[in-house]
Amino acid sequence: MKRPTQEGTRSGNGAGSAVRAAVQPHHIAAFGLTLSGAAFCERLLGGRAYALCDEPPHLGDLTTAALCLVLAAAVTAVVGAWVTQEKAPGHRAVPWAFLAVIAALIVTADGIDAHGEREAAAIAAQEGPDGDGGCEEAATIYVATPGWFFW
């Protein structure tokens, strides 16, 4: 039902301005920064280690991409909280979309790390130690962190 006001007509029963959205800006910031912080700490603490005689450069690129995605999730949390607070989006789905993007970035980072671990395991299995029990040159240690979503 539309009702007249000084600014024009207004939909609803008048209580719409007092009703708060289910997702507040601090929810977005807390969710994103908590997940990003936990994902970053997990990568600092490390996981399974693989000794590779020759580390392919793409393993380092995978690690960098995963860390960039974790950083992007943290930035998305801050931007999402700011947009929700300051810009007051007209649609209720906007805060939920920020939460979904944050979760997708973290899951994607874990997927990239899991792919890197599979690659490292395959390379380690192919190389195997030489007859004397070591590599011809110093081995590179690749530490894999598959995350929470890929085992």
Secondary structure layout:
Elements: E1 2-5, E2 8-11, H1 25-45, E3 48-52, H2 57-87, H3 93-127, E4 140-144
Antiparallel strand pairs: 1-2, 3-4
Helix pairs in contact: 1-2, 1-3, 2-3
Explain the overall architecture.
The chain contains 3 helices and 4 strands, in the order ββαβααβ. It is mostly helical and 151 residues long. The strands form 2 sheets. Strands 1-2 form a two-stranded antiparallel sheet. A two-stranded antiparallel ribbon has the order 3-4. Strand 1 (2-5) and strand 2 (8-11) form a beta hairpin. It is rod-shaped and about 85 Å long. The model is unreliable at 12-19 (pLDDT under 50).
Oligomer: single chain
* Mean of all residue-level pLDDT scores: 80
Question: How do the SSEs run, as a string of H and E?
Answer: EEHEHHE
Low-confidence stretches: 12-19
- Helicity, as a percent range: 55-70%
Distance between the termini: 53 Å
How much of the sequence lies in strands comes to 5-15%
* Biggest beta sheet attributes: 2 strands, antiparallel
Anisotropy-based shape = rod-shaped
Topology, number of strands: 4
Distinct helical segment count: 3
- The strand line-up of the biggest sheet is 1-2
